[in-house]
Design brief:
Blueprint lengths: L1 E5 L6 H13 L4 E4 L10 H14 L1 E4 L3 H12 L18 E4 L6 E5 L2 E5 L12 E10 L2 E10 L2 H10 L2 H4 L1 H12 L5 H16 L9 H13 L6
Helix pairs in contact: 1-2, 4-6, 6-8, 7-8
Protein name: Putative phosphodiesterase
GO molecular function: phosphatase activity
Pfam families: Metallophos (PF00149)
Length: 231
């Protein structure tokens, strides 16, 4: 059996559709989804519809990412902070670990363990405008990884940020996202960190996600326009 490992979709249903089509064309019938299904991009319901349809048709495994933790935690508790930490000890029982979150395809080995980062379907870093995921090929009791990068309609995704009106509600976040989709070399976290630092320097405090737009604007100008900060 071969597995497709897909992570960090972030609402990019257009890229997800291409990845799934490619995986199916390779004979893959099992899928592992590693979380961060929506966020950043327009029409999240289209992504979730695809995922629910996948679960009905194929052998699928799902875990939640930090984005899902944000939604669930906010729904249950509001902004009260974290109560529990994720358990990582279970992964130590196995020789191969697959993960996402960093949006960068990676493989490294340490202490007899192989760690594979599938990259990001929706907003990958350093991908040359391509969507990324991972296929695991099973041979007996062994697994062999194949990192996949495929082209998709980036400009359509960006267009929908505007036609949906999302860019009006979060203009600078959308600028950061557009830059990531087109160029893929500056993460939103880099700009977020700078915006929070600017806010704290001027006001004495900064609590995410309540960051005034003026600090987002300044961070975007410094990092994406003037490139005053090394990233």
């Amino acid at each position: 059996m071969d597995f497709a490992v897909l992570s960090d979709i972030h609402g990019n249903y257009i890229a997800l559709e291409k990845c799934v089509e490619y995986a199916l064309s390779r004979g893959v019938k099992a899928f592992a989804f590693l979380g961060d299904y929506v966020g950043e991009l327009a029409y999240p319901e289209k992504t979730m519809k695809m995922i629910f349809e996948m679960a009905e048709k194929y052998n699928c495994y799902f875990i939640r990412g930090n984005k899902e933790d944000y939604w669930i935690d906010y729904y249950n508790n509001g902004e009260l902070g974290w109560k529990d930490k994720d358990s990582t000890t279970g992964s130590l029982l196995y020789s191969m670990i697959v993960c996402g979150h960093t949006h960068i395809q990676t493989k490294f080995e340490i202490n007899g363990k192989t760690v594979l980062n599938a990259g990001s379907v929706g907003v990958p870093l350093f991908s040359n405008r391509k969507s990324q995921f991972l296929i695991l090929h099973q041979t007996g009791k062994q697994w062999k990884e194949e990192f996949i990068s495929i082209e998709y309609d980036v400009e359509k995704v960006i267009e929908e940020l505007h036609t949906s009106g999302l860019n009006k509600y979060a203009p600078y976040w959308c600028i950061v996202t557009e830059n990531l989709l087109r160029n893929g070399n500056i993460s939103p976290g880099t700009v977020l960190k700078r915006a929070m630092a600017l806010c704290k320097a001027e006001t004495g405090t900064c609590i995410w996600p309540d960051i005034p737009e003026q600090y987002w604007r300044q961070a975007v100008e410094e990092i994406l326009v003037n490139k005053q900060i090394k990233v």
